[in-house]
């Protein structure tokens, strides 16, 4: 409400002056009922202040893992949403759960970029990174750790501080017996550099199965599995 909606309105007013009409906005996180109501009030205030006829009725679309239950709850609360974007629950069978992944921009021309959100789980971690899997004495993965692109890689037998990306009090020291780099660049985006051949679908599947076989059984059990931890380096946390 302090950034996204005001910025949209500024652009929409500029477009209006040039003879174009903005279609609407999409709310994709947070309290959708509350945000849609506050957004509608904002649109109506803009229409009154600047005399743009119909601006108060600008379309508001809501999304974010919506299903019948969440839409029913929104209807009972009251909202100002004009249309719902239903994706994951429409195209997947939730007995076979979907993996929700979104690419976010983290760097432009070596300048870090961050996405801010009221939902802390949607705040991105800025700068280009590398990722490693740290293994213990028994051969099981202990934790994954993200580091900055230019940080030295973790070393076997070296005491490494692993920090939770957002919770300051959650941290642990790990001494890995084996280190595996997880992130591989096949093409850096430079037209002068030839792209490496990508693995086949079968190769990717086989690698995934091998990785699962190396996990501790308590991470894979269906009832109350132990969460597998992904951490950041101290330098990346302080970034």
UniProtKB/TrEMBL annotation:
MF GO annotations: nicotinate phosphoribosyltransferase activity
GO BP annotations listed: NAD+ biosynthetic process via the salvage pathway
One of the Pfam families matching this protein, by short name: NAPRTase
GO cellular component: cytosol
Catalytic activity: 5-phospho-alpha-D-ribose 1-diphosphate + nicotinate + ATP + H2O = nicotinate beta-D-ribonucleotide + ADP + phosphate + diphosphate
Protein's recorded name: nicotinate phosphoribosyltransferase
Family: Belongs to the NAPRTase family.
UniProt domain Nicotinate/nicotinamide phosphoribosyltransferase: residue ranges: 23-123
Matches recorded under SUPFAM superfamilies: Nicotinate/Quinolinate PRTase C-terminal domain-like
């Amino acid at each position: 409400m302090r950034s996204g909606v005001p910025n949209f309105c500024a652009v929409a007013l500029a477009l209006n002056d040039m003879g174009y009409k903005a279609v609407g906005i999409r709310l994709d996180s947070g309290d959708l009922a509350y945000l849609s109501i506050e957004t509608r009030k904002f649109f109506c205030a803009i229409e009154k202040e600047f005399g743009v006829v119909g601006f108060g009725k600008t379309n508001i679309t809501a999304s974010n893992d919506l299903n019948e239950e969440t839409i029913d709850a929104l209807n009972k609360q009251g909202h100002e949403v004009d249309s719902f974007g239903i994706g994951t629950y429409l195209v997947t069978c939730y007995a076979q759960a979907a993996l929700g992944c979104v690419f976010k921009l983290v760097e432009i021309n070596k300048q870090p970029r961050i996405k801010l959100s009221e939902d802390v789980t949607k705040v991105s971690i800025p700068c280009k990174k590398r990722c490693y899997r740290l293994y213990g004495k028994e051969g099981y993965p202990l934790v994954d750790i993200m580091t900055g692109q230019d940080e030295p890689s973790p070393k076997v037998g070296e005491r490494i501080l692993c920090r939770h990306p957002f919770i300051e009090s959650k941290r642990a020291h790990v001494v890995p017996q084996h280190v595996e780099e997880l992130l591989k660049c096949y093409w850096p985006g430079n037209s002068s550099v030839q792209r490496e051949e990508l693995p086949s679908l079968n190769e990717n599947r086989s690698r995934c199965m091998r990785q699962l076989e190396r996990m501790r059984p308590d991470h894979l059990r269906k009832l109350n599995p132990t969460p597998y931890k992904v951490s950041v380096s101290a330098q990346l946390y302080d970034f």
